[in-house]
Amino acid sequence: MYAQKANAPTRKPVTVPSLRAMKAEGRRIVMLTAYDATFATQLELAGVDIALVGDSLGMVIQGHSSTLPVTLDHMVYHTSIVARGLSSTLLVADMPFMADRDVPHALEAAAQLVSEGGAAMVKIEGASPHILEAIEALVERAIPVCAHLGLTPQSVHKFGGFRIQGREQEAADHMVAQAQAVEAAGAALLVLEGIPTALGERITRAVSIPTIGIGAGPHCDGQVLVLQDMLGITPGKRPKFSKDFLAGRDSVAKAIAAYVEDVRTGAFPAPEHCFE
C-alpha cells in the first residue's frame, strides 16, 4: 500500500473490509491524525488502524482559527508525506472546504488525494443532497468515503462556533436519518463529532458501517483525536473530549501506545471526556 519506512511489527494492512469486520467482531478501531512522515511512522509503530490527514492542520499546523483556509494543494501535500511513513495503517484524507461543492469538483479533489497524495479513503463532511450525490459518485468510481456528521468544522459559521450538536430530540432524529443516508449513499466509515453520548450510541446501532467518535461517547466503534491534542501540546484550552496522553510519560511513542491501548480496552473516552 505504502513504502515501508518503519520497523513496525508485521501486520496485515488495514482495509475497508477489515474495518467492517472489526465492527462486527466488537474490536475497537483506533484513528489518530498525522500531518507528516515522522509522526506517521510513530502511528505505524504503535499499531494505529487509521491515520487521518485532517484539515485540522489549518489550526494545529498553520495556526488559523478554523479549518476553512486549508486548500486542496495543502491537503495533497500533507497526505503525500504522511503516506511515506505508513505501511499497514489505512490513510484517510479530508476533502477541504468547498472541494465538495458539486460532483465534478468532488471527483477531481478526491482523485488528487488518492493518486497524488496516496490516500486510501477520503472524508467528506455533512449529508446534504449534493454531499450524498458526491458520495455516490465517488463510491461508483471505487474511491472509499468516510462521512462526517455532528460538529462538522467546515460549518463553524453556520453553527455560530464549535458547538455540540444533536442535543434536541428533533436534531438527534435528523442526525440518525443523516447517518443512514450517508450509509445508503455508500460511505464505508462515519466520524461522529461533538454529540451527546446517547446519540453516539444510537447512531452506532442504527448503521452497519463503523462509527468513529471524537467527543461522541464510548459506544462508537472507534475513536479519533487530533495528535496535538492527544499529546497535550495544542496552544490554549484542550477540548473536553481530549486527554493528554503524554502526561506522565517520557516519549511520544509511549503516549501514542497508551492512547491505542486505552481505545482498544474502552478506557478512553471516560465520562469526563463525554457530553450529555
From TrEMBL:
Instruction: Identify this protein by name.
Output: 3-methyl-2-oxobutanoate hydroxymethyltransferase
The family this protein is said to belong to: Belongs to the PanB family.
MF annotations from Gene Ontology: 3-methyl-2-oxobutanoate hydroxymethyltransferase activity
Q: Which residues bind Mg(2+)?
A: 55, 94, 125
| Gene3D superfamilies given in the database record | Phosphoenolpyruvate-binding domains
Per the record, the pathway is: Cofactor biosynthesis; (R)-pantothenate biosynthesis; (R)-pantoate from 3-methyl-2-oxobutanoate: step 1/2
Pfam families to which the protein is assigned, alphabetical = Pantoate_transf (PF02548)
Q: How does it assemble?
A: Homodecamer; pentamer of dimers.
Query: Could you tell me where this protein is found in the cell?
Result: Cytoplasm
What are its cofactors?
Mg(2+)
Species this protein is from: Dyella halodurans
Q: What does this protein do?
A: Catalyzes the reversible reaction in which hydroxymethyl group from 5,10-methylenetetrahydrofolate is transferred onto alpha-ketoisovalerate to form ketopantoate.
Residues that coordinate or bind 3-methyl-2-oxobutanoate: 55-56, 94, 123
**What EC designation does it have?**
2.1.2.11
> Which keywords label this protein?
Cytoplasm, Magnesium, Metal-binding, Pantothenate biosynthesis, Transferase
Q: Which reaction does it catalyse?
A: (6R)-5,10-methylene-5,6,7,8-tetrahydrofolate + 3-methyl-2-oxobutanoate + H2O = 2-dehydropantoate + (6S)-5,6,7,8-tetrahydrofolate
Describe how the cofactor binds: Binds 1 Mg(2+) ion per subunit.
Write down the top EC class of this protein.
transferase
Read off the CDD domains from this record. KPHMT-like (cd06557)
Indicate the residues that form the catalytic site.
193 (proton acceptor)
